[in-house]
Design brief:
about 325 residues, EC 2.7.1.11, ATP_PFK, alpha/beta, binds 6-O-phosphono-beta-D-fructofuranose, identical protein binding
Length: about 325
Amino acid sequence: IKNIAVLTSGGDAPGMNACIRAVVRTGIYNGINMFGVLQGYQGLINNNISHMDARSVSNIIHLGGTVLKTARCLEFKTDEGMELAYKNLQAHDIDALVVIGGDGTFTGAKRFGEKFGIRIIGVPGTIDNDLYGSDFTLGYDTAINTVIEAVDKIRDTADSHDRLFFIEVMGRDSGCIALRSAISCGAEAVLLPEKETSLNELITKLETGASTKKSSSIVIVSEGHKDGGAYEVAKKVKERFNHYDTKVTILGHLQRGGSPSSFDRILGSRLGFAAINELLKGNTMLMVGLRGNDVKTTSIEEALTKHTFKLESDLLEMTKVLSI
Ligand code: F6P
């Protein structure tokens, strides 16, 4: 292998820059020519590929977002798009790719790798923490800390006004951010995509809280919750429960930004370093991830097919017990 390119794709996640830096510098350290692709797979199609040196990644480890930019690229799902992308890689003599992203990114990588035989290593980068094969995905730790900071602030005002807040958090169809932020913030209840919620139970819980002198309540609603997001649930609850003034906050994209935590900077650096080392060993179609405190590989196929996050049963039980 002489030439390797790196790209970020799908939703950005804090820590991607630390990973790009590690990929580029580990490659250069090992005598590889390194390239960066702007805007993910779209940049491969548009030939937005440029040479990177060690200084191209100076002073980025602390930045949120991704300096390589990112995109959700529909064209890469077509044969024509993939062929164009391959032609552009060939034109630069690039023989391997490091792709940083979530399951959409890996689905594209799998098809592309199988079709053209190009070597690919994936790094799990998404705030959703929903990829099989890594206990943590890049960006999740920073995102959940952002959520916690925001919910704590809402708690201050909720408590001052004796209000009930429904706070919607991201995670697509994974309840990881919702469940763990609910525990971290002492939420009264949490509504998850993986679990059916009974409106009756939720209302009984809120009523018990009100009758036992709770001055405010926070309900965390995962955006993927099957019976509706925070606005819908708040509306249904309001029809039958009016002990508190009710408010809704959607945390939205602020959860994706911000300077990466120490955890995400180290994780990004470790996984970027490992991605290049896997390519140097001759490996392909693997995802590097963290299991326990070790970097391990999983086939991209397995990371995709087993991708669901499993809710921890003790945390689920605790959402009932600790919020009485
Ligand atoms: O996958 C990361 C994520 O932030 C999800 O939690 C969310 O559902 C989605 O991306 C939002 O995507 P977009 O920024 O394209 O609207």
